[in-house]
Amino acid sequence: MSADQERRWRRAQQIVEHAWRDLPAYDRHLLQSIGASQWLITTEATGRAVDDLLRSAGYERLSERAVRDLNAAAGVWIAELRLVVISAAHEPLAELDDRTYEAMLARVAWHEWAHALSVVRATREDVAAGERLLDLAPSGIRDFVRRGGYRRSEYTHELVAEIYALLMSRRRRGQPGQPPWLHDEIYNLVRRVSGWSE
Ligand SMILES: [Zn+2]
Q: What is the pLDDT of residues 160-193, one digit of tens each?
């Protein structure tokens, strides 16, 4: 690891630890109870790192396509390994100034933790309602999920994860609770799935 990579790795590690400590205690407890409290910061691209981890654990190699898709993300929850992987080397984030980098990386961590909670705790009905829930979502998030190329069965998880990361960012800025622009049905879903009770 070069000195610059090491510096980035340490900084990312600190940011994610801070993001973890900032979680409401009950949400952290839920993450521990579903086995989603472990994370790994890598200095490689996300997809490459995940491929290596899966292979060392005895799983099949990912396709080149899957590696490429994952490389486009700064973080991912790997259900098989009960692990959140975050890349400190993610290019689009590397260009940011320190404060923005910290805010963005914390959001990546919050997104992945909420994503894990959603995968485990959302009901079949919640998942089936993904398309309709997306229609109720703020347009920025709706477009983000639609453009992300996700399958319909992933809409609910992506929505919960994005909203949760936003709620955490607002909470850190001293604005807890339900944002006025957020539909009740989505807020209630996020509360039920993530344990959010702010
Ligand atoms: Zn996600």
A: 999 999 999 999 999 999 999 999 999 999 999 9
User: What span, in angstroms and rounded, lies between the C-alpha atoms of 51 and 70?
Assistant: 10
Number of domains in the chain: 1
Separation of CA 76 and ligand 1 centre (Å)? 7
Kindly give the distance from the C-alpha atom of residue 136 to the centroid of ligand 1, in angstroms, as a whole number. Answer: 18
Could you read off the pLDDT of 90-105 as tens digits, one per residue? 888 888 898 999 999 9
- In the reported structure, the alpha carbon of residue 158 is separated from the centroid of ligand 1 by a whole-number distance in angstroms of 5
Between the CA of residue 43 and those of 20, 93, 155, what are the distances in Å? 20, 13, 29
> 50-66: b or e for each residue (b if 16 or more CB lie within 10 Å)?
bbebbeeeeeeebeeee
b or e along 136-162 (b: 16 or more beta carbons within 10 Å of the residue's beta carbon)? ebbeebbeebeeeeeeeebbbbbbbbb
Tell me, what CATH number does 124's domain have?
3.40.390
Q: What range defines the domain where residue 173 resides?
A: 3-194
For ligand 1, the distance from its centroid to the CA atom of residue 148, given in whole angstroms, is: 10
